[in-house]
Design a protein that fits this description.
Blueprint (H helix, E strand, L loop, with lengths): L6 H17 L10 H11 L1 H5 L6 H9 L9 H22 L4
The structure holds calcium ion.
Length: 100
């Protein structure tokens, strides 16, 4: 993918870059550890984590996303989070838009 990327291609590149930036901090550079996931959530989705009164919410999200229970989030598992958030945003847009 190059300089004439479509918006969709740029979006995929951004997701890859973000994942790699956090996954590369410690341990395996292909997966997010719990600490890396927390750093990602606190930085990239701060609006979400700040509104949570429950301090265990990020841990529970990690557990739910870690489908193979290896204590790490690979890119596929990470995408499930992004997909879930995107679907929730889509739902709220659809609900907010005026009905015909
Ligand atoms: Ca995993």
């Amino acid at each position: 993918m190059g300089t004439s990327d479509s918006p969709t291609e740029r979006c995929i590149e951004s997701l890859l870059a973000v994942f790699q930036r956090y996954a590369g901090r410690e341990g395996s550079a292909c997966t997010l550890s719990k600490r890396e996931f927390r750093a990602f959530m606190d930085t990239e989705l701060a609006a979400f984590t700040k509104n949570q009164k429950d301090p265990g919410v990020v841990d529970r999200m990690m557990k739910k996303l870690d489908l193979n229970s290896d204590g790490q989030l690979d890119f596929q598992e990470f995408l499930n989070l992004i997909g879930g958030i995107a679907a929730a945003c889509h739902d709220s847009l659809v609900l907010k838009s005026p009905q015909p």
